[in-house]
Amino acid sequence: MNKNLFEKLLILRSAGIGPARYNELLRRFDGDAVAAAAALNASVAHRDAVMREMARAAELNIHYICDDDELYPAALRAVKNHPPVLTARGNLDTLRRRAVAMVGTRHATAAGMEFTANLATEFASHGIAVVSGMAIGTDTAAHRGALRAAGDAQTIAVLAGGVDYIWPVENESLYWDIVSRGVVVSEMPVGFTPVAQNFVQRNRWVAGIGEKLILGEADMQSGSMRTARFATDMGRKIYAIPSHPADSRAAGPNSLIKSGAAELCMGASDFPELENDSQSLQKKSKKDTGENSLLDKLGAIPVSESVLAEIVQKSILEIKRDLVVLELQGLVQKVDGGYIRI
What we know:
Blueprint: H1 5-12, H2 19-28, H3 33-40, H4 44-59, E1 63-66, H5 74-77, E2 85-90, E3 99-103, H6 110-125, E4 129-132, H7 138-148, E5 155-158, H8 172-181, E6 183-186, H9 196-209, E7 212-215, H10 223-233, E8 237-240, H11 251-259, E9 263-264, H12 277-296, H13 305-312, H14 316-328, E10 332-335, E11 338-341
Parallel strand pairs: 3-4, 3-7, 4-5, 5-6, 7-8, 8-9
Antiparallel strand pairs: 1-2, 2-6, 10-11
Helix pairs in contact: 1-3, 6-7, 7-8, 9-10, 12-14, 13-14
């Protein structure tokens, strides 16, 4: 058991005390959690509530991980005012792995979710855990994609409620799959029902656990864009997956790419850790050639996506992706009737 766990929880489960107040209190007592807890003069009822939580955690095979424990995610530990104690359920060794955060809208397109899932599979297959928030849509695709890879330490789900509180209910089967072959974590008490602010904080910890953040489809006001801002504040590198500018779900990632806040993500070849240099160069060359070939077919007269697909012998989906990249680079423009070169 973690040293002084009861006293740490006694402080954290007190009303009005979060990570910042907790750290301030411990500084006053030179890091002595026992002395800090004693200063709170907690009621018998409060002490009993913490003891009941710990007993319930033991019954459910839920573990407490303090920030001085070797299992505590290293990247999260470096974040200012990180959660002093996490609860975790599943394969705790998953937390030792390097991790990449993958987030996006709950209302993702089928193509967007498949792209995310395939990329997550690549990361998990290379020993890098995929961390997300277990929401429907993009989060689900990221977790499911990671679980496609062999092994039992593939993905980390960060929950807004207690680590035993399954939300959304549609993802109950996913929850148990992650417990079996990954890990579910939370900063909240066992059994806690989340409120809106907890989801915002959950997004912060998703960004904190990942060494980098990959943003899928997301409108400008989505929680995923807030996760991207958290990642920026933490100094994380952000990658954004582009999509068609006419779709509001493309506004988030496209805006980050355009402003230079995120790097363009077109697939696994954008990440050196996923393949050797020769493979990366070969794929990048092939991708650039495809985009240049498409650009060569455009001029002052608009050409539709379907016509371009027939000319260059590519699928409509591939054409759309290439056109998005060219549009973000300022090389083509969508007008009535199709695209023109500018």
